[in-house]
Model the fold of this input.
Amino acid sequence: MNQEINVNPNLLSARRVWGLPLGALALAALLWFSGWNAPVFLWLHEHLLPLGGFLWANLTMLGDTAVTCLLLVVYVRRRPDLLWAAVIAGLLSYAVSHSLKPLIDEARPPAVLDIVVVGPRLLHSSFPSGHTTTIFVWAGLLLLGGAVSHRLGRVAVLALAALVGLSRIGVGVHWPVDVLSGAALGWLSAAAGLAIAARWPWGARGYGRLLPIGLLLLMAAYNLFWHRTGFTGVWLTQQGITLAALVWGVIELRAGCLQQSLCRKG
Done:
């Protein structure tokens, strides 16, 4: 089951890596220095909330690390390098995000505005948005890693990531600057994870593959038995994704073992 690393160096070109994060950070800087951060939040929150708390709660759940990582289970057999890059990117993004949150300790919208909040009423450590960071790690891995090549597929991945980011404004716990910065951080973390995985492929080959697979199993177990997102109306979606990931993972692993056995016989 040893496979070569599949990352195409062209996919990690400067334009592909830096285009999205530079655009997101430029817009974040414009909002911050112009004083539009709060007005834009209020306008978006006012127009997003009527679409339904159920919608935004379920979308925001997709940015929960314990759930997001399970969306990569479809690549267990075909792209072990992608799972290994996800481990590295996840660690990088977590380290940066959770270092910035207490350091900056920006007040969240409910701490300074009288707004409706869907789910937990969080008040502190707003910058950057962790959920947005996580979903853009996922999007970056798929797009920069070449896992999704069809134009419509790429648009769909970016659209889903953007909706998850918007959901953090919809539920009322993050400023637009938090979301834009989280998107930039997640995308760059994915690029770094892919580059490091290509140079150090230990977790994509041989017994090293057991590490990302084991982490996926742990996250699935965590979701099934312990993880509570704090949002109502998301349990069915959360458990559905978890069970589907477990079933798909078993099928992929069995197919991989069968393929390996046939190769050995051949």
